[in-house]
UniProtKB/TrEMBL annotation:
<dbReference type="GO" id="GO:0000977">
    <property type="term" value="F:RNA polymerase II transcription regulatory region sequence-specific DNA binding"/>
</dbReference>
<dbReference type="InterPro" id="IPR013087">
    <property type="entry name" value="Znf_C2H2_type"/>
</dbReference>
<keyword id="KW-0862">Zinc</keyword>
<feature type="domain" description="C2H2-type">
    <location>
        <begin position="51"/>
        <end position="78"/>
    </location>
</feature>
<protein>
    <submittedName>
        <fullName>Zinc finger protein 708</fullName>
    </submittedName>
</protein>
<dbReference type="GO" id="GO:0005634">
    <property type="term" value="C:nucleus"/>
</dbReference>
<dbReference type="InterPro" id="IPR050717">
    <property type="entry name" value="C2H2-ZF_Transcription_Reg"/>
</dbReference>
<feature type="domain" description="C2H2-type">
    <location>
        <begin position="79"/>
        <end position="106"/>
    </location>
</feature>
<feature type="domain" description="C2H2-type">
    <location>
        <begin position="163"/>
        <end position="185"/>
    </location>
</feature>
<feature type="domain" description="C2H2-type">
    <location>
        <begin position="107"/>
        <end position="134"/>
    </location>
</feature>
<feature type="domain" description="C2H2-type">
    <location>
        <begin position="1"/>
        <end position="22"/>
    </location>
</feature>
<feature type="domain" description="C2H2-type">
    <location>
        <begin position="135"/>
        <end position="162"/>
    </location>
</feature>
<keyword id="KW-0479">Metal-binding</keyword>
<dbReference type="GO" id="GO:0000981">
    <property type="term" value="F:DNA-binding transcription factor activity, RNA polymerase II-specific"/>
</dbReference>
<dbReference type="InterPro" id="IPR036236">
    <property type="entry name" value="Znf_C2H2_sf"/>
</dbReference>
<dbReference type="GO" id="GO:0008270">
    <property type="term" value="F:zinc ion binding"/>
</dbReference>
<keyword id="KW-0677">Repeat</keyword>
Length: 185
């Protein structure tokens, strides 16, 4: 068994085995094993973010989130994929990446059964079924299902043609038109 310096720590440890959570949030009723976790939770309701990044001033509710954020500034990516060596700032991004290697697609559309590697792609796909087009062009009011289609459409208004033929210099608004043109050469 474990040893403890005083009886209060022993009492606190016993809660691990009993499952008892005697500290309850008066705002939402969620319970915790110890008062420090309740105090940490209370920040959700107060909106207080006492841990501030000295580099950019962004604030966080807890020190672990600040530590995670600090990696943005240091460039450190401590989580490495054992299959391909690609590195990530946090374990959740590594887990997400691992699906590329396993082929697993755990997010499934309840309407059609199509599966996706991540929840954001499923959410994007769901718009096919709802018909929702949340991205609207501020110039003409035309709406699109995703931001990339809106960006592509915006080229109509800007006149920009970012895809250029390396053989003759002719430019196009999208890669498919450039590909079609290349058949000429």
């Amino acid at each position: 068994g474990q040893s403890f310096r005083d009886s209060s720590r022993l009492s606190q440890h016993r809660l691990v085995h009993t499952g008892e959570k005697p500290f309850t949030c008066t705002d939402c009723g969620q319970s915790f094993r110890d008062s420090s976790r309740l105090s940490q939770h209370r920040l959700v309701h107060t909106g207080e973010k006492p841990f501030t990044c000295t580099d950019c001033g962004q604030s966080f509710r807890d020190s672990s989130r600040l530590s995670q954020h600090r990696l943005v500034h240091t460039g450190e990516k401590p989580f490495t994929c054992t299959d391909c060596g690609q590195s990530f700032r946090d374990s959740s991004r590594l887990s997400q990446h691992r699906l590329v290697h396993t082929g697993e697609k755990p997010f499934t559309c309840t309407d059609c059964g199509q599966s996706f590697r991540d929840s954001s792609r499923l959410s994007q796909h769901r718009l096919v079924h709802t018909g929702e087009k949340p991205f609207t062009c501020t110039d003409c009011g035309q709406s699109f299902r995703d931001s990339s289609r809106l960006s592509q459409h915006r080229l109509v208004h800007t006149g920009e043609k970012p895809f250029t033929c390396t053989d003759c210099g002719q430019s196009f608004r999208d890669s498919s038109r450039l590909s079609q043109h290349r058949l000429v050469h």
